[in-house]
Each structure stands twice: as C-alpha cells, then as structure tokens.
Amino acid sequence: VPKVYESSQTRAFKLGRTETIRSATRQSQAFIQAMESPSASAADKIAAARAAFEVHGKLGGAAAQAQGCDRHLLGLLLQAKDQGETPPRLFDQEVWTRGWELSTAQLPMNALLVNSFGPVTAAGYGIGYVIQKNDITATVVSFNAHPDTSSRRMALEIRKTLEEMRALFEQA
Fold this sequence. Notes:
There is one protein chain. A five-stranded mixed beta sheet has the order 2-1-3-4-5. 41% of the residues lie in helices and 17% in strands. β4 (125-131) and β5 (136-142) form a beta hairpin. It contains five helices and five strands. The protein has helices at 26-36, 42-64, 70-82, 94-97, 151-170; strands at residues 4-9, 18-21, 102-106, 125-131, 136-142.
C-alpha cells in the first residue's frame, strides 16, 4: 500500500504553511473497492464516493485549521536532531522512515492555472491539481530515472478513472 498524503494550507495562521491530509482512509479504500467490483451497483459506487468525499473534506478542513499532527511531530523530530538528542522511538516506525509514494496538492481557485507538485521520494509521484466547474487539470511529476514510475502512464490512469467517475455520476 503506498504512503499517501495531500498538502493543506494553514495560511489562516501567522507564518502558517502546510499540514498533512491523510487521504488514504477506510472510506477511500471502500470507494476504490466499489469501483473495481463488478457486482457493485451504480448507487453503491456513488454512495461510497460521497462517503469518501465527505471524510476527505473533513480531514482537509481540520488540517487547514492546524488540527493535524504531522507538522507538529516533524517539528519535534527536527528540534531533537538540531539539539543532538536521540529522537523518540516513535520516529523509528515505518510511517516516519518510508518516503511518501504519492504526494498531492490542490490549488483551489477559479483561474486556469497549472499546479505543479513534485514527488518527495525517488519512487513516487507528485500531483498538483485544480478543480473547476467543468474540468479538472492535473500535473503529474515523477523522476524519469526511476524504473517504476511513469508520469505519462499515471496521467493516463488518472484520466481514465476520472472519466469512469464522470460517467457514473452522469447516469445518477
């Protein structure tokens, strides 16, 4: 399972930068499973999508209000290292030692812009996207030197998935 996150802005706070939205949720997994299931009805798929969207929206709102834990913990880790201390064992866990295979960022605006967001690990992808009324623009970035990544292939999969979702919601 890839390690996934989405960046959220915390600009409401003085010197605010970003917080992490942990976008791989039980609801997003259930939505993917419903979309891949030949026995799931259109209504089941739509319900699963809406549940995933709702949870993602809540997590994004919480992160924007600095209610995430990632940046706080990262600050503690960096402070311990700066002071020459051994970081707590918490930071030995895979969630901290493994890179993010998928990092994404939405640029919430109405103007047509390209939102580029780079990968944070050699075997990963960075995806910046803009959602507008009638379309979605996404920029997919990966290291072309890595044998397991292909920005072109990922972009084609994203397009195919979004087209499947559009067809699903248009029939509802």
